[in-house]
């Protein structure tokens, strides 16, 4: 079995790399949004032209980024949504909702202090993890049936 995994959410830490490295021996294909913050923020105005109003600046970028995000989530077998400690990732919550509406298998990854705030997102998930290692262990179990040593 091969699984496609979309890694959504927080872009300020190396959680994606930890999962990809930890799962390197599994038959997985990973995809994610653009994780360069400046590129993600400015893609719309760089490609389509400057905006004086910050709302329209952000609107253009969000729409261009949505092309990649929608395709990645639609093609995924599993969507991992990371909510980090430093910022509120409203886009991650939107991605989780979109994945849930499509019937995707969702794994949420967040620190314990966010549990109450994310209770509705957690209710849509098939697993809630606190560490990238746990996501690797879930994916390993799903693909091989083997529990961690």
TrEMBL record:
Pfam families xref list: Nuc_deoxyri_tr3
InterPro entries in the cross-refs: YtoQ_family_protein
Listed NCBIfam families: YtoQ_fam
Protein's recorded name: YtoQ family protein
Species assigned in the record: Tritonibacter scottomollicae
